[in-house]
TrEMBL record:
Domain NAD-dependent epimerase/dehydratase: 14-175
Organism name: Pseudomonas farsensis
Entry-linked Gene3D superfamilies: NAD(P)-binding Rossmann-like Domain (3.40.50.720)
Family to which this protein belongs: Belongs to the NAD(P)-dependent epimerase/dehydratase family.
Pfam family membership, one: Epimerase
Name under which the protein is recorded: NAD(P)-dependent oxidoreductase
InterPro entries, sorted: Epimerase_deHydtase, NAD(P)-bd_dom_sf
């Protein structure tokens, strides 16, 4: 007997940063949750739009462009922006002004849910032997981390002022595999990322929830005790990469970046001096 297709929870989802490493993964994963995925980036995106996709180039710094981009959308997964440490002026346009434009577009179009790709670099200046959670005072470790802290503040403001709910994902290190010893603690597998974004879209009454995006690794630096209502249950672990990564050259004993959660980001820059 033919199966009746299950109705998808969203008609149209907007994905920013769709050309990036995580955007390419989520562009496909989000198909399960929406009739149409509107994929956007400042850069060229491949492959071209499929049957249930729209592909639209847009610079997040262009306010009118972002407003048009979000028209007819039910929820936004906002990944777009500079994803490493850069000069403040670059970060300002893409991440700070760009995220403001996303929230303004949500407000004007009545969009009630944003999933915001924040970063562990909001708390990168904590030592690796301290357990941090969503209520720990923030310690941004670079301009990039500061921009993500500002994005989280926008989320809090737009929730209390306009009722727009956000789940801010303080993503650890999301790559096909952990690349160094630090990432044994910070790694988020792509499967766990897709599950986290699903929960961030579908969980009810999230207000503004902050959750660390990390797999079920052996030595965790972050507790998600304040995000249990999301139902995020990571299944992967970095442990199978340990033996190989422990053979890499170790950091010098006086290397502060090896003791801080943010790693090399805590010492990046300054730029343009
Ligand atoms: P990525 O750098 O591969 O992708 C970011 C995308 O944003 C790029 O395709 C870029 O073209 C686009 N972009 C940059 N400036 C833009 C602008 N002005 N307008 C429109 N689009 C613009 O980064 P990745 O790894 O895919 O990360 C996605 C998001 O998750 C980023 O916001 C990043 O900060 C965050 N994140 C990622 C982590 C990871 O381990 N991959 C860890 C923590 C946070
Ligand atoms: C991030 O926020 C970056 O976007 C990503 O490229 C990784 O370097 C990650 O943090 C990390 O901390 O490993």
């Amino acid at each position: 007997m033919p199966q009746t297709p299950t109705a998808k929870p969203f008609n149209c989802l907007l994905l920013t940063g769709a050309a990036g490493g995580l955007g390419q993964i989520l562009r496909e994963a989000l198909q399960a949750h929406a009739n149409v995925v509107r994929a956007s980036d400042i850069s060229a995106m491949a492959p071209p739009a499929g049957d249930h996709e729209q592909v639209i180039n847009c610079n997040l710094a262009d306010k009118a462009g972002v407003l048009a981009l979000a028209e007819g959308v039910d929820a936004i997964v906002h990944l777009g922006g500079i994803s490493t440490e850069r000069a403040f002026e670059e970060i300002l346009q893409a991440n700070i002004v760009g995220t403001f434009h996303i929230y303004e577009a949500a407000r004007k179009h009545g969009i009630k849910r944003v999933v915001f790709a924040s970063s562990n670099h909001v708390t990168g200046f904590y030592p690796q032997d301290e357990l941090v959670d969503a209520h720990s005072p923030r310690r941004p470790d670079c301009y990039y981390g500061l921009s993500k802290a500002y994005g989280e503040d926008l989320a809090t403001f737009y929730y209390h002022r306009y009722g727009i709910e956000t789940v801010s994902l303080r993503i650890g290190s999301s790559f096909p595999a952990p690349r160094n010893l630090r990432m044994l603690s910070t790694w988020l597998s792509y499967a766990d990322l897709a599950h986290l974004v699903e929960r961030a879209l579908l969980a009810e009454d999230v207000g503004h929830t902050v959750v660390y995006g990390v797999s079920a690794n052996r030595d965790l630096w972050w507790s998600n005790r304040y995000a249990a209502h999301l139902g995020f249950n990571p299944q992967d672990s970095s442990e199978r990469f340990r033996t190989q990564l422990e053979q890499q050259p170790q950091a010098a004993a006086d290397d502060a970046t090896a003791r801080l959660q943010g790693g090399a980001f805590t010492a990046a820059g300054p730029f343009g001096d």
